[in-house]
Amino acid sequence: MAQEKDPAFVKFQGIEKRFGKVVAVKKMDLDIPEGSFVTLLGPSGCGKTTLLRMLAGLENPTSGDIFIKGKRINDTPIHKRNLGMIFQNYALFPHKTIFDNVAFGLKYRDVPKANIREKVEKALETVRLPGVGNRMPSQLSGGQQQRIALARAIVIEPDVLLMDEPLSALDENLREDMRREIDNLQQELGVTTIFVTHDQREALSMSDKVVVMKDGFIQQEGVPEEVYNNSANHFVADFLGHSNFLNAVVEDRENDFLRVRLEDGSSALVTPSGDFASGEKAEIVIRAQKMKLEYSRNHNSEEKMNFFSGTVVDRSYMGGEVSYFVQLPGKQVLHVINFVKRSPYRRGDEVVITVDPYHCRLLKM
Amino acid sequence: MKNMISGWTLIKLYTVFIYVWMFTPIVAVVILAFNPQQFGTFPMEGFSFKWFVKLSHNSTILDAFKNSLVLGSLTAVFSTAIGVPAAMAFIRYDFKGKEFLNTLLIAPIMIPEVVLGVALLLFIRWLQQPKSFVLLLVGHVVLTLPYVLLIVQARLVGIRKEYEEAAMSLGASPFQTFREITFPLLAPAVFAGMLFAFTISFDDVTATLFWATAQNQTVPVKIFGMLRNSISPEINALGAVMIVLTISIPLMAGYLSRRFAGKAGK
């Protein structure tokens, strides 16, 4: 029988950090449930790393409190917090063997010698690198070094695993593998994990909860699908995936949708997020992947769909899909991503963009 | 095209000339040390170790040698013992007046040794203390500390803070982190700094002339004194020994620090 999971295993309460005049993290409240994988996502300088470093004890909060398992840890020094930390540049001790690196944390935990060997070997097996104990860190590849860093962090059975952009030093293909590996490992161990990244794909693919940050504020937190599909504001919609923004004025309600008028005079049906009054100025968000292109000459009007006609001004081939940039009569350019078809559209082609009102979300300005 | 080639040739010749001009006196000293004649003339008539033998029986020289070795070693130890924690503080921590204090400690490199020599003497007189070995040692530590500081700081900058942060996150206290991580990674620089301190102390004339008493004369000061009376070929032999020591020690330091650095990786 599994014990009740603590919904606020890690708790930030009114946490704030200033560096001189710069406020890195502003009066933030955040609960992290036990056993969950939470990602702090945002552009550089958004405060995500500072938040992580405060939890680790590498920075002192200017004000506010941090709790782990209900215990306030503000004044607990870093080496008594029992956290596993993974760094961007692995930070394996270059003068120690892999074995000594992984065993490092156990030395300070009253683990008997014989058990140390056993635990280290088990940790190395967990990260699928058994038998490298005698090698030096410099003899391993980047991906291997990061797996050793992972082994070194999990072998001490930390309360929380902290990862600071652990994949950004790896190259593209390896990153994908490591992403899955970290995800699987976290599920297997069930250790509460906080993962800092600026890469939305990492955040969306691994997390139970994504916390989108900007300028020291939380912009939105939620499960990946919610943050992606129901972005709370312009920033989140823009930061995650490829979004198009159109200014609009609300006209009236039509069943579940709102009828809005665009700047070029055309009208569209949209899904409102929140309450809108007639005549209110707002912004439509449309994901590049949710729009479909067809030639103007093949186009048949269909009920309950939105249409925008325009001209293809640019395109870029990305393997499985193609990015098109379509200019509307009002000079605005929409970014459309479609799967590769037999005859891709070319520059100058007259096209019609079709999009379901369900995928046109109306946001407050 | 032709002009360009001759231009380069000119520069090469000029370079060679500079080197010859710089090293001839040194080479001459070493060669003359093996000259059996009382007065060194070229070409040499024969080859002998007699001045070296004579040197090894000269008790004042041997005393001076002993003084130099003891002083150099102690200087190296104290300079490192002060320099390493200071470098740690300057690189790893932020505190008020950091820049000022750092400049202050590096300053002896920029101040002429004569000034430094006189200043310390005046200071000791103001304290109404006699000249002593301790004064000499303090002086040499002041002289060599900047080198230790600069070398250790340069290496510390290269050791990423993440290593220390990782160690502490794994449960090592700040002291254990220093012992297990920082110091081993820093060791080549500490060692190199120590050897530099030793060599500089071993070599110093100007400031030491002001500070040394009759009992604790160092080798360079002794040579300086001997030159005033006569130009004995013994000095050539002594010079040769000094040259070998002062060149080989830094070379060894450089080699060792590269070797250790290579082992420690980046």
From TrEMBL, chain A:
- Gene Ontology molecular function terms on file: ABC-type polyamine transporter activity; ATP binding; ATP hydrolysis activity
Keywords (A to Z) from UniProt: ATP-binding, Cell membrane, Membrane, Nucleotide-binding, Translocase, Transport
Q: Fetch the Gene3D superfamilies from UniProt.
A: 2.40.50.100, P-loop containing nucleotide triphosphate hydrolases
EC number annotated for this UniProt entry: 7.6.2.11
Q: Name a single GO cellular component.
A: ATP-binding cassette (ABC) transporter complex
* A biological process from GO: quaternary ammonium group transport
Pfam families xref list: ABC_tran, TOBE_2
Stretches assigned to the ABC transporter domain: 10-240
Instruction: Write down the InterPro entries for this protein, in alphabetical order.
Output: AAA+_ATPase, ABC_SmlMolc_Importer, ABC_transporter-like_ATP-bd, ABC_transporter-like_CS, Mo/tungstate-bd_C_term_dom, P-loop_NTPase, PotA-like, Transp-assoc_OB_typ2
Provide the catalytic activity annotation: ATP + H2O + polyamine-[polyamine-binding protein]Side 1 = ADP + phosphate + polyamineSide 2 + [polyamine-binding protein]Side 1
Coiled coil (UniProt feature)? none
Q: Which SUPFAM superfamilies match?
A: MOP-like, P-loop containing nucleoside triphosphate hydrolases
Describe its function: Part of the ABC transporter complex PotABCD involved in spermidine/putrescine import. Responsible for energy coupling to the transport system.
Name the family the entry cites.
Answer: Belongs to the ABC transporter superfamily. Spermidine/putrescine importer (TC 3.A.1.11.1) family.
Subunit structure of this chain's protein: The complex is composed of two ATP-binding proteins (PotA), two transmembrane proteins (PotB and PotC) and a solute-binding protein (PotD).
Full protein name: Spermidine/putrescine import ATP-binding protein PotA
Species source reads Desulfamplus magnetovallimortis
The record's gene field reads potA
UniProtKB/TrEMBL annotation, chain B:
What keywords are annotated for this sequence in UniProt?
Cell membrane, Membrane, Transmembrane, Transmembrane helix, Transport
Report the membrane topology from the UniProt record: Multi-pass membrane protein
On whether Membrane is a keyword of this UniProt record, the answer is yes
Q: What's an example Gene Ontology biological process for this entry?
A: transmembrane transport
- Superkingdom of the organism of origin: Bacteria
Q: Residue ranges of the ABC transmembrane type-1 domain?
A: 65-253
Q: Where in the cell is it found?
A: Cell membrane
A GO term from the CC aspect: plasma membrane
Q: Which residues form a coiled coil?
A: none
PROSITE patterns, sorted: ABC_TM1
Transmembrane portions of the chain: 12-34, 69-91, 103-127, 133-152, 183-202, 235-256
Q: Which family does it belong to?
A: Belongs to the binding-protein-dependent transport system permease family. CysTW subfamily.
Stated name of the protein: ABC-type spermidine/putrescine transport system, permease component II
